Amino acid sequence: MTKPTLGYLEVLALPDVGIQCHAKVDTGACSSSLHAEDIKVFQRDGQDWVSFHVLFSREKMRIDQRCEAPLFTRKRIASSNGSRSYRYVIKTPVTIGNQQWPIELSLTPRGSMKYPMLLGREAISGRFIVDVEHTYLSK
């Protein structure tokens, strides 16, 4: 069975938090992350939840969305520059092309990055092949 191919950039949706965005597909990154600001943990029905603001503005990408999701965990994650920090992680469905499945997504300020989301290898392992010479192959 041939796996579908992704380019190094893809459009994806996070339907449970109301986000559609461009993401960098990065097989060098283990985990996935979403740009988030003003992150706050709160209780709902005895469970930890997290609220956050996805405020991202680049040439063709503008997102201004307040989100809430159940808090999955808090993990120590290494960034691309090698520094480690604890991040809040949610588990949420992602939709790419005609596929949808749950992924773990860390919340972190990515305002200095070109794309609001990084899709790491844990999220795509076993589902896709990545062709870094192309972009937006999942359409």
What does this structure look like?
The strands form two sheets. A nine-stranded mixed β-sheet has the order 2-3-10-4-9-8-7-6-5. It has a two-stranded parallel ribbon with strand order 1-11. The two termini are 20 Å apart. It has one helix and eleven strands. Strand 5 and strand 6 (47-57) form a beta hairpin. It is globular. The model has no long low-confidence stretch (mean pLDDT 92). With 139 residues, it is mostly beta strands. It has one domain (5-131): Acid Proteases (Cathepsin D, subunit A, domain 1).
Give the total of beta strands: 11
**CATH class, anyone?**
Mainly Beta
Which class best fits the helix and strand makeup? Answer: mainly beta
Whole-number total of structural domains: 1
**What is the alpha-carbon Rg in Å?**
15 Å
Strand content: over 45%
Which fold name is given in CATH as the topology? Cathepsin D, subunit A, domain 1
Task: Tell me the major beta sheet.
Answer: 9 strands, mixed
As laid out across the biggest beta sheet, the strand order is 2-3-10-4-9-8-7-6-5
Helicity, as a percent range: under 10%
Given the structure, what is the number of helices?
A: 1
Shape: globular
Along the chain, the helix and strand elements come as EEEEEEEEEEHE
Please identify, by name, the CATH architecture. Beta Barrel
Low-confidence segments: none
Look at the structure and give the mean pLDDT: 92
